[in-house]
Amino acid sequence: MAKLHASGWVHSDLQPSHGIHTDHGVRLIDCSWSWRHGLEPTSDFRGGITHLVAPELAASINVGIQPVTPSAPADVYALAGSLWTCSTGRWPLDYAAAGINPAQLTAAEIRAHIASRRISLDTAALWPAFQDILRPVLLGRASDRPTAAELAETLATVAT
Q: What was the pLDDT predicted at 74?
C-alpha cells in the first residue's frame, strides 16, 4: 500500500481478500477502483466494502457527493480495518454492541452508522499489541491517520 501511495495512486477498495501472500511478499489485487491524483474519479465509486469504508467517505457517499474522491487516508483506514479483521476474524466495528444487525440494513444505512462514528470498536482482544496500533487509525480523523508506510513501520514493532 505504501508503494502504491508513493506512486500517486490509491487502491480505493482495500479489503482482507485483496492481499495475496506470495513467495515475494504480499501483493495487492483487485485494483479495479484504483485512482490517481489528476484523474477524474468515477461516479460509480461507492467507497469499497461497506464495513471498511472510512467515515469521511461514508458521509460523502450518503449525502450524494459525486464523484466521491478516494484518498490515501481512506485507504489507510481500510488497511487498518482489513488487518483488524484478519487478526480477529471479525469486522472492526462492534455492530452488536450498538444494537445494529448489518444483515438487516442497506449499505446506505450501514454507511450512515459508520459516518456517525457512534459504533465502538469490537472488543475482541486477540492480539492486543497489534490492535492497539490499529485502534487510533480506526477511531481518529482522516487528518490524524498515519501514512501506510508509517503504519507498516509501527506494526513491524509488534510482528517481530
A: 94
